[in-house]
Amino acid sequence: MIIKTVKLTNFRNHTSYKLECKDETSLILGENGCGKTSVLEAIYILTRGKSFRATDPEIIKNNTEFYRIELEYVSGEKIIATYDGKMKNFLILDKKTRRLPKKNKYPVVLFLPSDLNLLSHSPSRRRDYFDRIFSEFDETYASNLSKYEKALKQRNELLKKDSLTEDTLFSWNIMLSKYGTDLYNQRITYIEEINSKLTTTYQSIAKNQDEINIFYKTEAKNLTNEQYLKKIEQNFKKDSYLGHTTFGVHRDDYIFEFNHKPANGSASRGESRSIILALKFIEADLLTQKLHLKPVILLDDVFSELDETRRHCLVKNFKNNQVIITSVERNTF
User: Fold this and answer.
1) How far apart are CA 305 and CA 109, in angstroms?
2) CA distances from 30 to 14, 18, 36, 300 (A)
3) What is Dmax (Cα atoms) for the chain?
4) Does residue 33 have a pLDDT over 90?
5) How far apart are CA 23 and CA 270, in angstroms?
6) In the chain, pLDDT over 70 holds for what percent of residues?
7) Fold of 120-290
8) C-alpha angle with apex 13: 8 to 16, nearest 5 degrees?
9) Does the pLDDT value for residue 178 go beyond 60?
10) How far is CA 72 from CA 12, 19, 92, 93, 254, in A?
């Protein structure tokens, strides 16, 4: 499935905008601040169901009462999303839904300039990055993550209240242990899968023999549900004092290693960029392999951050995908 057109109304700073997409590569040119990223954001909402950077009240154009975005595939299928200031709805074949149905989602590889700094970002940014990737090709992971985050939020709210007892938290502790162990097992499986391809993919970009690995750092390693639950319960006094849950997979991290040393500090700027390129290539391969669909590639002004060799590698690797690029430079390739 390939995107044919995208239309925006009252979306970010666009009163009205239409993009006619090409089968292979479409280039959106413009100065910084003109709304190029907003077009990719609209595509992401209509293919994945939600924005990658904001909530609906933040997206609607100032001094307007609604936004509307429409995506048409070359097959003729149309997906429309509207937001009236209170509620977002998707319209597909005259049927209205609050969420984008699974069958109407389409895989996307999103490449943002901030991704190039993933190695030095905070643990929470790296968790968010991998959560987004794993959720895209595994609906069970997405469901487990959503349930875990809701339980965590409820437990943390209770921890801020006075006269709290351990019994009050029991049901939330059970949920966190169940979904926490599930998330750990899924994460370790997918990181092992990425690691099996990472060095080879990196070497094909960098043309050297350096070794790359991602170390999944967690306190929940190999714990059963019962052991996970016990860890949470042991931290009751500490959690009550601090007002938040101090044990769990929401504190995990992904450490990139470069020749068996932490990459953040040992890898050069160019080497770090090659690592991220390799990760993006593997992400696209995993989506194709698991969903049997070639993902749409959304590149948000990343060419200005890459040298000529890495630009060429990026274009070459995604030559069989539909690619939509934003840039301030006309001579992007």
Assistant:
1) 18
2) 13, 14, 7, 12
3) 64
4) no
5) 31
6) 98
7) Glutathione S-transferase Yfyf (Class Pi); Chain A, domain 2 (1.20.1050)
8) 35
9) yes
10) 20, 11, 11, 12, 37
pLDDT digit string, tens, across residues 58-117: 999 999 999 999 999 999 999 999 999 999 999 999 899 999 999 999 999 999 999 999
Q: What is the mean pLDDT of residues 284-308?
A: 93
120-290 has the same fold as 3-106+294-327: no
Per-residue pLDDT reduced to its tens digit, 74-84: 999 999 999 99
Which residues is 78 bridged to in the sheet? 72
Rounded distance between C-alpha atoms, residue 124 and residue 127, angstroms: 5
What are the boundaries of each domain within the chain?
Answer: 3-106+294-327, 120-290
For residue 333, the model assigns a pLDDT of 55
Q: Tokens 């307007």 belong to which residue?
A: 64
Q: Give the position of tokens 């319960």.
A: 233
On the question of pLDDT at 332 being above 70, the answer is no
Which class would CATH give 3-106+294-327? alpha beta
First and final CA of the chain: distance in angstroms? Answer: 25
Overall average pLDDT of the 295-310 stretch: 92
pTM reported for the whole predicted model: 0.91
Q: Does residue 285 surpass a pLDDT of 90? A: yes
